[in-house]
Specification:
Elements (H helix, E strand, L loop, with lengths): L11 E4 L3 E7 L15 E6 L1 H11 L4 E4 L1 E2 L5 H11 L2 E2 L2 E2 L5 E7 L5 E6 L19 E4 L5 H14 L2 E5 L8 H4 L4 E5 H8 L4 H10 L4 E5 L5 E5 L2 E5 L12 H14 L4 H15 L12 H6 L3
Parallel strand pairs: 1-4, 1-10, 2-8, 4-6, 5-7, 10-11, 11-12, 12-13
Antiparallel strand pairs: 2-3, 8-9, 13-14, 14-15
Helix pairs in contact: 1-2, 1-7, 5-6, 7-8
Length: 300
Amino acid sequence: MSGSEGTDLPRVLVVGSANLDFVTRLSHLPAPGETVLGESYTTAPGGKGANQAVACARAGGEIAFCGALGTDPFAEPLLASLRESGVQDWTVRAPAPTGAAFISVSEAGENCIAVASGANGTLCPEQLPPLTGVGWLVLQLEIPLETVQAAAQAAREAGAQVVLNAAPARTLPPELLRLVDVLVVNEGELRTLIGATDLRAGVRQAQASGPRTVVVTLGERGCLALSGDDWTELPALPVPVRDTTGAGDTFVGVLVAALSRGEPFAAALRWAVTGSALACTREGAQPAMPGREEIQANLG
């Protein structure tokens, strides 16, 4: 593991995916069987795990990232972005290509994404670092589920808070949800996870499955959260939308940064809603993520 020895323990550890994003801007997203021409493409560091780590670090979190990268050149811009953002590098190298994501973005800022997991699919429980002293563990679902569950179990045994962003959408075993303290999903992911069509009823069902706190991101409508018995609903910050890629990851990273430094839950949600909106005003995932001062200046 690259950096887990000889460094100060972070408050937050993200275990998850890292991808190199290939982004093409199009007039509209293609329908099945349709080819839409774009003028060019750009590459940028991405992957839900690395995105959330970078967003957390830029928002002031003390954080490390554990994920699997290949030994190919695609790994280098991912590592550079982590370093430049202040994320401790706890990555491992795998005999597989670095993960890649192929992203199309419409003129309206909507996107569709195809992911080739590559090295991300090789991260196994035996490669996880010790969690002693880590206060918050952040997980997503772009690495093997057994590794997600092993990390959550280790965090529970170490006394760390477990934050699960249940994305990409899939059903999950009850034993994993019982290990989660904070669950973050969008509306589609909530429906996949719970099956409820009513939003508030779905949130209550999700909470009953284990997590004390459930947060649903609602895009341009903000977010809805239930923590214990307390509901919080916040509107989105109105911004000119350029690209929504990485907005959800920004939300998670900024939320955990705020929680890890002791912000009350409702205040942490305001930070997250603001940070994710600001990320939509620029292109790309990690390149668009705002810093702590910019978020604070726009809290309102």
